[in-house]
Every structure is written in C-alpha cells, then in structure tokens.
Specification:
The chain has about 230 residues and is of the alpha+beta class. It is built from 4 helices and 9 strands, in the order H-E-E-E-E-E-E-E-E-H-E-H-H. Strand 5 and strand 6 form a beta hairpin. Belongs to the EMP24/GP25L family.
C-alpha cells in the first residue's frame, strides 16, 4: 500500500512546491483599460535602494472584429513615477510597448502612472485601449540567466547569488517594516499628546467658566440686595 501511495504523494508535493513558488514571485501582472487622455495610477510599497522593472504592452479595440489587436508603433505611452515625498523619479515617453526601470531612494508608497498622449487612438478605436502591465520588484527584477551567461557562473554559484539577493531583499523589507513601525509610533504618540492637551484645555475652560458664573451670580444677587 505504501508503494501505491508514493506516486500521488510525490505529485501532490510537486504541486504544493509549484504553488509556493508562484506565490513567492515578486512579479505583479495585470491589465486595464484607459481612454485617450485618461491616466491610470498604481501605488506600490517599495523599500529604499530597491530596483523596480516594469514591462507593458498595449492593444487597441477593433470595432469591426470586436477584439483587441496589437497597437500601432506610432502610439505613445507616458510613464511617470513619484516617490513618497512627491518627487518625480521617472518621467519619460515610450512607445506602444516598452520597459521602464527605476531605483527607489526613499522607502514608502511610490505612485506609478501611465497615460497615452497620442490622438491617433480616436481614429483607430474610439479611444479604447488595453494595457498589460508587469511590475517586478527587488531580486525578482534580476535576469539571472543573463547574469550567469555574463559572469560565467555555474549552477551552484548562480543559486548562491540568488540566495544572497533574496537575503538582501529580506533585510530591506525588514528595515522598511521597522521604518513603518517607527512612523506609526510617532504618529500615535503625537495623537495621544494632542488628546491629552485637549482634555486639559477642556477642564481648564470648564473651571474658568464655573468661576465666572459664580462671580456673575454673586454680583447679580448683591445688586438685587438678595444677599
């Protein structure tokens, strides 16, 4: 019986490993639709000193065939990236298909925006465009087959290089989490301090109001000769 069950167990183990590998990847692939002058932005949490690579391609809607077809080479896509402080990290015009790269220098939420500034969309597809976007962050942005061929690395050396890059990326993620925790702690302390001072101010105002009312009533009764 053990020999009969070994095959399914191995197959199940391979499926689990494949699922874990897919979940662990740093690639984020998606597609979306935009109009002729519409801008679409995405927020990506990125640690500092981390390389990000984005690949995109566009398709136009064909009304006659009712399908999305590859865009013409004349279509232009503008890519703009801003760091958490609002500073422009990347602002460049690309074609209908392209690849953009930037390195973060400030940890936090980076804004990645894409829009088409071409007026030819209205002539071809009434302004309907599909954009396929794939974003890779950290060590997942490295092309390890190319690195192995360039540096003439063996399989073991390449695996060691990958592990070192993963450890470095994990360290950056941990530093970023500590940075977020520090910011959250400072915000909480500032909020608690403001609440405390507001409570003290309310108490002082109530006491002063009570004293003023007592003096006013005393003056009123003395004026009426009631006391």
């Amino acid at each position: 019986m053990a020999g009969v069950r070994a095959g399914p167990l191995r197959a199940m183990g391979r499926q689990v490993l494949l699922l874990l590998a897919l979940c662990a990847t740093g690639a984020r692939g998606l597609y979306f639709h935009i109009g002729e002058t519409e801008k679409r932005c995405f927020i990506e949490e990125i640690p500092d000193e981390t390389m990000v690579i984005g690949n995109y391609r566009t398709q136009m809607w064909d009304k006659q065939k009712e399908v999305f077809l590859p865009s013409t080479p004349g279509l232009g896509m503008h890519v703009e990236v801003k760091d958490p402080d609002g500073k422009v990290v990347l602002s460049r015009q690309y074609g209908s298909e392209g690849r953009f790269t930037f390195t973060s220098h400030t940890p936090g939420d980076h804004q990645i925006c894409l829009h088409s500034n071409s007026t030819r969309m209205a002539l071809f597809a009434g302004g309907k465009l599909r954009v396929h976007l794939d974003i890779q962050v950290g060590e997942h942005a490295n092309n390890y087959p190319e690195i192995a061929a360039k540096d003439k690395l063996t399989e073991l050396q390449l695996r060691a290089r990958q592990l070192l890059d993963q450890v470095e990326q994990i360290q950056k993620e941990q530093d970023y989490q500590r940075y977020r925790e520090e910011r959250f702690r400072l915000t909480s302390e500032s909020t608690n301090q403001r609440v405390l001072w507001w409570s003290i101010a309310q108490t002082v105002i109530l006491i002063l109001t009570g004293i003023w009312q007592m003096r006013h009533l005393k003056s009123f009764f003395e004026a009426k000769k009631l006391v």
